[in-house]
Write a structure and sequence with these properties.
2 domains; 2,3-Dihydroxybiphenyl 1,2-Dioxygenase, domain 1; nine-stranded mixed β-sheet; eight-stranded mixed β-sheet; binds fe (ii) ion
């Protein structure tokens, strides 16, 4: 089986490339590691490629990159995908630091790149912006979250961490409680993406930064139920919802099957489960504001 291990990068198209570069540098705190005409490659200060921006007619998340176990060869992964009805292409040197990737289109229409060989990019660290550890997860609205979840589990090796009712799935591919979310909705679109920060002081400073930049915090800080992360959400200039989070639950041992215990857990042990859609789930914090609830432009 293909075993996804980590969310590597998200590939965003944007109508205003310079505005988005400014946002990712000066609010998120990524650094431009390379530029290739109308494509820009942004990395964390450690050199982890996290975001690719490409100029296009309008904003959308066009692709996701996942690091996979090197256990299966690219040819074997290609055969595995084809057996499930998903043709794929092997690409060479498509992105800096990633010499080879296998690309296919997932059942909801997103291009997915799988890679196992990669290197940190040489970067000049920036001191502006939040400066995250990593791109942590990405959430999608889709018409059939169960079908997409089944594909990610059966074909890409994800595990189900939690569901809220039958409309909001949380899937992990490493120790983090979720790397992808699938939320039922009328049209296929990205819901939000999230950067992991270090600790409460880092999140506090990031919220101060959003205030200085006049970017409204549309929800949070709040401690969620599923995943138990403390999260603060804002919208970037492309009206994409962006989450900064800390304290996400971790399943350190898949064989044991429970999340590493934390004082705020409601279950002891905290295991994957279906959360009731009819009960308050967040541990603390106010409900989302109108600019979180509304649809993207
Ligand atoms: Fe999230």
């Amino acid at each position: 089986m293909i075993k996804a291990k980590r969310l590597g990068y998200a590939y965003f198209e944007t109508a205003d490339l310079e505005q988005q570069i400014d946002y990712f540098q000066n609010v998120v705190g990524l650094t431009v590691a390379a530029r290739d005409g109308n494509r820009v490659f942004l990395a964390t200060n450690t050199g982890l490629l996290s975001v690719v921006l490409q100029k296009a007619a309008e904003q959308r998340c066009a692709r996701l990159g996942f690091e996979v176990s090197p256990e299966l060869s690219f040819e074997d992964m290609k055969k595995r995908l084809l057996a499930d009805g998903f043709p794929s292409d092997i690409r060479s040197d498509a992105l800096p630091g990633t010499p080879k990737s296998l690309t296919f289109t997932d059942p909801k229409g997103t291009q997915v790149d799988l890679f196992s060989e990669w290197s940190f990019l040489p970067v000049t660290p920036v001191t502006s912006g939040a400066g995250p550890n990593k791109l942590g997860h990405l959430a999608w609205v889709c018409q059939d979250p169960k079908a997409i979840s089944d594909f990610y589990v059966n074909v890409l090796g994800f595990r189900v961490s939690d569901w809220i009712g039958d409309y909001f799935g949380f899937l992990r591919c490493g120790v983090d409680h979720h790397t992808v979310n699938f939320i039922r909705g009328p049209q296929e679109r990205m819901h939000h993406f999230a950067f992991e920060l270090r600790d409460p002081t880092h999140l506090h400073n990031a919220c101060d930064l959003l205030g200085r930049k006049k970017l409204e915090i549309v929800w949070g800080p709040v401690r969620h139920g599923p995943g138990h992360n403390v999260a603060a959400y804002h919208r970037n200039p492309d009206d994409q919802m962006v989450e900064f989070f800390i304290d996400l639950d971790k399943m350190l041992d898949e064989e044991l099957g429970y999340f590493d215990p934390r004082p705020w857990h409601g279950d002891r042990p905290q295991k994957p489960k279906v959360w009731s859609p009819n009960e308050p789930r967040d541990k603390w914090g106010l409900p989302p504001g109108p600019n979180w609830v509304r649809q993207n432009k």
